[in-house]
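Hey, resending since the last one bounced:
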Amino acid sequence: MALTLPAHPDPLAERLHTSGLLHELAHGLGGPFHYLLPERFDANLADFRAALAEAAVEGRVYYAKKANKASVLIDRCAAAGAGVDVASLGELREALGHGVRGEDLVVTGPAKSGQLLDVAVRQGALIAVDALDELERLLARADHRPARVLLRRHPPSQRRSRFGLDDAQLHEALGRCAEAGDAVRMEGFSFHLSGYEIQERADLAGDLVELCLKARTLGLQADRISIGGGFPVDYVPADAWDTFLAENDAAHYHGHKSFAASDFYPYHSPVAGADALRAILAARPGGSGASLAERLRQAGVMLLLEPGRALLDRAGSSVFRIQGVKDRTGYGIVTVDGTSLSLSEQWFNSEYLPEPVLLTRGDREDGPYEACVGGASCLDSDLLTWRKVPFPARPAVGDLLVYPNTAGYQMDSNESPFHELPLPPKIVIDHPHESSRPRWRLDR
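The structure tokens again:
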């Protein structure tokens, strides 16, 4: 029996898929492409802000730019007065070039280059300091204006993490900031935490609030903490996900490929997006006492967030045109006009599990038909989908496969012009709710 995992129904995307526009774009562009729905980004941003307001917590949302390179998303941040989380000089320049103010940037990432630190200080960006030597390099550059600093704490619950300062290093860094006087504004603390555990984030956030109170005794500002990202996205229904995990085995994949369940992204999450933020704020750090929201209010500490994937939920999909179908015993191999380098999960020993939607060029009743999906390269391992997906009809040359909800990390984390194939362009869909046909434009 086929193993299926469809994404949540999305009426807006379905309307776009039945409009005929995607077939025209595939013909005109001559290759795969990604489409973006920026109004979804706006709605997700508004929901995170609403969660902060509901808890009466002063906070700031920074879009983690690494999740998608599209320029239109930075335009939306600038228009909405949202912050942007950048981790390279290129990302910083892109944000500034699209109208985001320097003081609305937070610069993250380990061992930042000297040039990145120079520009960040001059522009008044907030800088998450990951190591003692980075703090010294930063202080040496703060000659024209004070460096705005968050000290990143190493997470005690994740000892193997390469990020952050341990307790002894934090103590030394606080002393160094106090000695530096006007050269630095030590505004608070941050952390980088892998995974999606609500209580773990609340516990560490509670620790950072206490660190702020300690830092103030040294005369430091210390009035904000950043809990980073890690807000899950709910891609698929609970029953479909449970069934998938229970029935998943190598027989469902081309070549009996096997994946460890622990390597899959948790494609179903009962608490996701801004609701995960609500749960973190309601949680009690350490399991007792006041909620995190109450502790933030009592201490006068602002909460900073750096969501990426969660701001991009349902904000875009990836479209590939079928250019060949090969029959094997019991299933087929569909080859599309792109490669798995444009669907990044496959390059992390995993699989992007929400299955593609088949858009045919006319009604056909020759299904169902199970098939995996291969890329157009000479690599035997170039498969966009190893799983034998149950399509409603036998795919044909010229049909389209739409991978749903790929805006968060999937579209462009690992893309490559292998075989001289062009990178799939990004198409911005404007006003898809209107009764007239959706309008489109190139992102860049």
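DSSP finds twelve helices and 17 strands in the chain.

Sorry for the duplicate.
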